[in-house]
Design a protein that fits this description.
By secondary structure, this protein is an alpha+beta fold. It contains 22 helices and 19 strands. Helix 4 packs across helix 7, helix 6 crosses helix 7 and helix 10 runs antiparallel to helix 17.
């Protein structure tokens, strides 16, 4: 009985193995059996001679052990690793040291510097060494102590907060009791101050030019070539500069956006708005439509008064004066709220919901300051001058702007990546507009979303009209073994249902992100529009295409009406900034605040802390 059971199990195993090896020609055909099953089990001549026909595939239903379903992982957020400071190495002068003259003083200073320990990040340390090892004279101290110029420099560094930097990163400690020290100890103490102040000034210059952080070390969603800062001539320039503070101020980004952020930061730092004005409180999930009434209406009007612009309040001064706290949402109040919504970048429909309320209660004074500091840091990652012509996409605002001759000519709503499919933060050059585009499906969507469906239904892509290419040839999706995770290209032909709509605007990048049309127009009616797989969907794609092509919307319409897939280069390449700012000035210079939809501000804040800890640990 045991032997029969063993033979039965062996028989079933052999059958299963053979069935797993049977191939089909195409999908839905029957197995081609050139010999009997018993001949195959015995390994007869027919089985040995049989070869599988070319381009045959194993149907999923015949596979006993499919490959595990792969996943294309999204980029990660990292634990920020700050640049590690190193010891500044000043070489002791050759002996003997001259007894008198300038060379004597410089050599004595250099000897003292070689005997103290001051740390700085490598680029800064190298610039400090280059100056003092080349017989550079002390700039900030003398035998009498810290000079007036040195104190002015320290005072200028103490004001770093005004430009969004951390004053503690640039603080220089002058030791107490200098007058009571012997000559050798005093000289060493002063030369340590000299080295430390030079290092801190160079660090400030580097930070205000390119930012404190390396954005690419914050997350895989940041993609920047970090700016190079030439520090070699700076100490000589500071030595001859009559006003160190003015020199440092001149290193700030010279663009109107940075100036607006700086002005707003100074305003918030100089006043505590929350103490001067009671916070606005509105019941969560309040919903008020035109013609309705609500006990929260007085609080909502208080919010408009607190956070609306002066021009809005002037325009609706009569309405605000006549409002006495009633609960009815009258047409005059609706017009006031619509004006408020428009200037806050919301849908100006007069409907008061969570998005409108959030602009009145969502950001405290401290939160705004933090957003401004982060925005100023991020702006330092971008070019000092954004250019006379560019497209600027701000993901937290869900808006795109076209700037020409340094003036905003277009603003439109956009849809950006959902939190699980975040849009990257980078810059590039707009190069091409493609009309009636194919949609090349990203590998992440093929693997993460299509593969599970295709394992259940191999004809899934055929039914939806997608084109599949495998090893350079076009095939039906039903022909492939999806359990084996084939490496395929998938694209959707131009049509009214194409995911890209009628056009896309290309700025080739490693992340396959571009601007495009979409058949899902209803998404633009939402206030929270982080809904895509990462690309940027435009509410008015033909208007944007006309702007970047330097033509008219009628011309764009004609290109689309041809029905032909056609890519046209823009007359002149120009920048696009796919950015992420939760504080950003509007076209009038008023700073607007937005929710941190991807929690990137939090990641940046942690990187600030790590950087300051690394720097101040060596001070």
């Amino acid at each position: 009985m045991g032997k029969q059971l063993q033979n039965s199990r062996l028989h079933r195993a052999c059958v299963a193995a053979l069935l797993a090896g049977v191939t089909l020609v195409g999908a839905g055909t029957q197995p081609v059996m050139a010999t009997t099953l018993m001949e195959l089990l015995r390994g007869g001549p027919a089985a040995q001679k049989r070869q599988p026909p070319p381009q045959e595939v194993i149907p999923p239903q015949q596979l006993a052990d499919p490959e595990p379903l792969q996943k294309v992982d999204a980029p990660k957020y990292y634990t920020y690793k700050a640049e590690k400071p190193r010891l500044i190495a000043i070489t002791a002068p050759a002996t003997p040291i001259a007894v008198f003259g300038a060379d004597h003083d410089i050599a004595q200073a250099q000897l003292a510097m070689s005997q103290v320990q001051v740390f700085a990040v490598p680029d800064v340390a190298q610039a400090v060494e280059a100056y003092y090892n080349n017989k550079g004279a002390p700039i900030w101290v003398s035998d009498a102590g810290v000079s007036d110029k040195g104190r002015q420099a320290m005072e200028a560094l103490a004001g770093a907060e005004a430009v969004g930097l951390e004053p503690g990163d640039y603080a220089v400690k002058v030791p107490d009791g200098l007058d009571g020290m012997d000559a050798d100890a005093r000289r060493k103490a002063l030369m340590k101050v000299e080295l430390d102040l030079s290092a801190k000034l160079l660090t400030y210059v580097q930070d205000t030019t390119r930012g404190r952080l390396d954005p690419n070390k914050i997350s895989g969603y940041h993609d920047f070539k970090r700016k190079a800062v030439n520090l070699q001539p700076v100490l000589d320039l500071l030595r001859t500069s009559p006003d160190v503070a003015a020199y440092l101020r001149g290193r700030d980004p010279a663009n109107p956006q940075f100036a607006a952020l700086k002005t707003e930061l100074q305003r918030l730092l100089s006043e505590d708005r929350q103490q001067q004005q009671a916070p606005v409180r509105i019941k969560p999930n309040t919903l008020l439509k035109p013609g309705g009434s609500s006990p929260e209406l007085p609080n909502i009007i208080a919010g408009v008064k607190a956070f609306g612009s002066d021009s809005l309040k002037t325009e609706h001064a009569l309405t605000l004066t006549n409002y006495t706290g009633g609960l009815d949402y009258t047409p005059e109040l609706v017009a006031l709220v619509e004006g408020y919504q428009k200037e806050r970048g919301l849908k100006a429909d007069g409907v008061i919901g969570n998005a409108t309320i959030r602009t009145m209660v969502g950001h405290s004074n401290a939160e705004k300051i933090e957003k401004l500091v982060i925005a100023m840091e991020q702006l330092r990652w971008l070019p000092n001058d954004l250019g006379p012509r560019y497209v600027f996409i701000n993901q937290p605002a869900f808006e795109a702007y076209y700037i020409n001759d340094r003036q905003q000519q277009l603003a439109m709503r956009v849809v950006v990546g959902a939190p699980q499919h975040q849009t990257f933060f980078f810059q590039n050059m707009i190069q091409t507009v493609e009309f009636n585009p194919y949609w090349g499906v990203p590998r992440s969507i093929i693997v993460n979303e299509f593969m599970p469906k295709l394992r259940q239904d191999p004809s899934y892509l055929d039914r939806l009209g997608y084109e599949v290419s495998y090893k350079g040839r076009k095939v039906n999706s039903s022909q492939l073994d999806w359990n084996a995770n084939p490496d395929v290209d998938v694209r959707q032909p131009p049509s009214s249902d194409n995911a890209l709509g009628d056009l896309k605007i290309l700025f080739p990048n490693a992340h396959a992100i571009y601007m495009h049309d979409t058949p899902a127009k209803s998404f633009f009616k939402r206030d929270m529009r982080a809904l895509s797989h990462g690309c940027v969907r435009l509410a008015e794609p033909r208007v944007m295409a006309a702007a970047v092509m330097g033509t008219t919307v009628d011309d764009i319409n004609q290109q689309i009406a041809s029905g032909q897939n056609r890519a046209v280069q823009v007359p002149q390449k120009f920048p696009v900034y796919v950015s992420y700012f939760t504080a950003w000035p509007d076209k009038d210079g008023a700073v607007r605040y937005y929710d941190d939809i991807y929690s990137r501000d939090e990641a940046t804040r942690k990187a600030f802390i790590a950087t300051s800890e690394a720097r101040q640990a060596q001070s």
